[in-house]
């Protein structure tokens, strides 16, 4: 079993800089979990503590049924793929892939070569084994670094932004390759990235960090559709969610840009879960739609910029000095300065408490220690 457990793990630098604060998470055997967050959120620090490259300041880390707090990195049976690939330039691909296995096992040379050739074929680099890294493309170097980890047959794969040096097209291709490999091997994989698209497309579950604190754990669908708080709602999704300061009066949400009449059950739920009537309404750009002037619950805005991207359109709008974005498919003949009327569905909106920033419309807690149950289907 290669279950991974973080229990109240903390990392403090220089006695006062908290990089990770009281982090707890259980990762099931065979799961693909992505840790995502802005720069400085603590995601790479978590990975390095699990790998044994950083000492923890408190708490406990387990791999399988073994606590590894004091186990040297080379004895933890994890394999790590770095952003810069960390290949030895003077060694051939074959030697790069076999080097770690030679250091950590007593396998005979013939078996090591057999493993290397098998994995090289899996990675599509079997004809590159006698070349040195400098003769390879970025994508090929990434395959070598990943293959070197696979050859070791570790309990856990750790990947720290391994695709960030690739161009967009190759990055998208390698995402599908890594998913296929992980599915075939069934090895527990923890993947760190700042790219939310990678997180949403590759993962069984997504872990979202900010300032060293765990914000939410859930399937890609859960963190997108049911963000636990305003940070998650803002961080996940592109373009970002729109936010409007609103006040709840009776069953009416009032902002400087519009008024929106909600159902009585929605109003009651908001009051039960919020600390005051001062709230923030969130709506994703793709959940807004055009409306006519006779419709209820509309926002009248001026079009500042229309940005067509193929069949996709981004409309940058302004209503009484409040800027927001709408996304829609199709062909439109709007011009800058046009007055546009838009609306959105009550079921698609999110309401955040202005004080706590929690999402009062969902039952999703900010943290979820254990696995989400059945493995999510990746897209």
Descriptive account of the structure:
The protein has a six-stranded mixed beta sheet with strand order 6-7-8-3-9-10, sandwiched between helices. A five-stranded antiparallel beta sheet has the order 13-12-11-14-20. The chain is an alpha+beta fold and 379 residues long. The chain is built from nine helices and 20 strands. α2 packs parallel to α4 and α3 (109-123) crosses α4. Helices cover 26% and strands 32% of the residues. The protein folds into two domains: 4-227, 3-Layer(aba) Sandwich (Rossmann fold), CATH 3.40.50; 231-353, OB fold (Dihydrolipoamide Acetyltransferase, E2P) (Beta Barrel). The model is unreliable at 365-379 (pLDDT under 50). β17 and β18 form a beta hairpin.
Could you give a quick summary of the protein structure above?
This protein has 379 residues and is of the alpha+beta class. Helix content is 26%, strand content 32%. α3 (109-123) packs across α4 (138-151).
């Amino acid at each position: 079993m290669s279950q991974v457990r973080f229990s109240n793990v903390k990392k403090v630098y220089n006695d006062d800089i908290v990089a990770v604060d009281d982090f707890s998470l259980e990762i099931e055997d065979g799961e693909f979990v992505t840790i995502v967050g802005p720069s400085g959120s603590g995601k790479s620090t978590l990975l390095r503590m699990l790998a044994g490259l950083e000492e923890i300041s408190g708490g406990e880390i387990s791999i399988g049924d073994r606590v590894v707090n004091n186990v040297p990195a080379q004895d933890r049976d994890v394999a790590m793929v770095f952003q810069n690939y960390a290949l030895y330039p003077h060694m051939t691909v074959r030697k790069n892939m076999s080097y770690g296995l030679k250091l950590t096992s007593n396998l005979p040379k013939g078996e090591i070569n057999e493993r290397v050739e098998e994995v090289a074929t899996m990675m599509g680099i079997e004809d590159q084994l006698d070349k040195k890294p400098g003769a390879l493309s970025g994508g090929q170097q990434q395959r070598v670094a990943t293959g070197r980890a696979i050859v070791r047959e570790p309990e856990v794969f750790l990947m720290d932004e391994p695709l960030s040096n690739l161009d967009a097209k190759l990055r998208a291709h390698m995402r599908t390759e890594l998913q296929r490999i992980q599915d075939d091997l069934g090895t527990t994989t923890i993947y760190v990235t700042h790219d939310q698209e990678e997180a949403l497309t590759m993962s069984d579950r997504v872990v979202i960090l900010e300032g060293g604190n765990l914000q939410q754990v859930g399937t890609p669908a859960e963190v997108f559709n049911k963000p636990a708080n305003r940070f998650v709602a803002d961080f996940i999704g592109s373009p970002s969610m729109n936010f409007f300061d609103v006040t709840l009066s009776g069953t009416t949400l009032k902002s400087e840009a519009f008024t929106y009449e909600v159902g009585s059950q929605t109003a009651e739920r908001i009051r039960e879960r919020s600390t005051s009537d001062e709230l923030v309404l969130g709506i994703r750009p793709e959940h807004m739609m055009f409306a006519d002037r006779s419709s209820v619950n509309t926002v009248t805005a001026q079009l500042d910029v229309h940005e067509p991207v193929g069949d996709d359109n981004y409309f940058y709008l302004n209503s009484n000095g409040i800027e927001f974005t709408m996304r829609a498919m199709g062909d439109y003949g709007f011009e800058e300065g046009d007055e546009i009327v838009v609306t959105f569905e009550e079921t698609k909106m999110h309401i955040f408490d202005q004080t706590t920033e929690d999402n009062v419309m969902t039952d999703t807690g900010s943290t979820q220690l254990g696995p989400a149950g059945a493995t999510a289907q990746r897209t």
